[in-house]
Amino acid sequence: MSAERKLIQESTRRVLLKDFLVSESSRAGFGGLEITRTPMGTRVTLVCERPGILIGHRGELIKRLTEEIQARFALDNPQIEVQEERQPNLNAQLMSEKLASTLERGWHFRRAGHSTVRRIMESGARGCQVILSGKLTGERHRTERFKAGTIKYCGEAVHLWMDKGFYQARLKPGVIGVNVWIMRSNAKLPDEITVKGVEAKPKEAAAELPPVEAAAEPAAPEASAPEAS
């Protein structure tokens, strides 16, 4: 098997595994997935808002999920690790799922979008953007954006500081795509430079100088009367 075909097959397996785990952990609040190859096998790290629902009593549910993953996707000795999301309002995947659920409950898309952005910014994010696309009103497809703070679209800052999540809201008119972008609170942008050993001093108030009085102009000489001859 060629290297290109093997790479495509591995990428397809990862996508299918993610879709399967999203559907299986929807009740627990799916917040992210990381797959790592180890000498002992394949380690799958799941980030959830409520990990107890996914683990089950004495780990019965997580054992059954591990066996199903091994049988369906032919992973080498899979080991599932479940982590709890401490800041769910700053997890883009969780917020996209919550926004989709809000839309499915009948909220107007503008109210839901603004409410989500406000909730994320109040939790300490540096920036947030919500993109809703689909049949929002009427039969025509449209896209609406809700943005606050700082957002980066390209460059190294996107890979380091931007968290992106996507989910679908299934409504009667059709499916609405929900994209949530969040810039982390500890983000440091390339234009933010700190010089070591130099402390910024507060600007001192300028001393108020007394007003300068205008110098008195000399009086013009009076014109003398002509002498009588």
Please, could you describe this protein's structure?
The N and C termini lie far apart (131 Å). The longest helix has 22 residues, at 3-24. It is built from six helices and seven strands, in the order H-E-E-H-H-E-H-H-E-E-H-E-E. The protein is α+β, with helices and mostly antiparallel strands. Strands 5-4-7-6 form a four-stranded antiparallel beta sheet.
**Secondary-structure-derived class:** alpha+beta
- Low-pLDDT parts are none
Mean pLDDT: 83
The helix content is 25-40%
Q: Into how many domains do the coordinates divide?
A: 2
Q: How many β-strand runs?
A: 7
Largest sheet: 4 strands, antiparallel
> What is the helix/strand order?
HEEHHEHHEEHEE
Strand order of the largest sheet: 5-4-7-6
Count of alpha/pi helices: 6
Question: Can you name the CATH architecture of the largest domain?
Answer: 2-Layer Sandwich
Shape: globular
Instruction: From the alpha carbons, calculate the radius of gyration and give it in angstroms.
Output: 32 Å
Oligomer: single chain
How far apart are the termini? 131 Å
The CATH first-level class of the largest domain comes to Alpha Beta
